[in-house]
Amino acid sequence: QVSQGPAAREDDIYDLAYHTPWERWFGAEQTLRVDTSAIRSPMRSLQFCNLRAKDGICDHLRDREGARPSIDTARPDARVHLFLDESQATLYLDTSGESLFKRGWRLDKGAAPIRENLAAGLLALSGWTPSHPLLDPFCGSGTILIEAAWIALGVPPGIARPFGFERLRDHDARRWRELKEEATAAIARRLETPLTGYDIDSAAVEDARENLLRARLTRDAVDFQVGDARTIGAPCQPGWLVTNPPYGERMAAATPDLWYEWSSNLKKHFSGWHVNVITSDFGLPGQLRLKPRRRIPLFNGALDCRLFQFDMVDARYTVKPRTSADPSDQTGPV
Question: Model pTM?
């Protein structure tokens, strides 16, 4: 946040923008983008409010430094956000740049990608730690397992991406480079526990292997294989299974008996494993014939989902099928 003030009309937005010391952060040598959002604002046109903010910024810099920045809506050097509520306007300078879930490595995202930060969150919620084996039997383009590899090696999540502050004035590029070098030196050189991913789609597995290299990991960091979740065996001693299986639109390509056959395989070959499944299908435990130890509400994009957690004990671990959502969620939204 760089400035805030009362805003009853559009000219108040211009005045606020004009009297903010933008020269501290950028000037005519940088390009600019301004965005506006509002909640219960009395302003009639957000587009006009956006224009007044932009004019105030550019006029300020022209009067102080003799030139105004160019506008670039695609890849600007400086991003300013105007937020309006019932009575106030607030101006923010974006120091992040692109969304923070973008780690800078993923290009092949598969049919239904899970964001990198959600994948890391699932691993944390599951209770997995780098000292335990990890399996994803619906790995797609590998996001969950690549995030796990970064966590296990101690890789800072943003080390491979640029940030918005790097384009601003007074950015200490030398100090930033030193910090990144220190962080890189602290990264472990090898993984001590197995990370394994299967997918029935060979093209998805190839994408996962390519993403592994883009994430600056070696090919043996994660064992990606073509395999069917309904028939694979446990790759090692009991550990954690964390997965984002087909649901919603992705279920169009799934067979009707997928869940029955997968759960049968889990009961037969995965005794002792901790299974964590994110899905928007609240009736999934009934289809799997498994009783969840815990169900955690969260969102995958706009989809209201649950992270169901099961502890595989033995083949007797079953319940009667359920066809509707269980209202007794054990935790609040994440």
Answer: 0.79
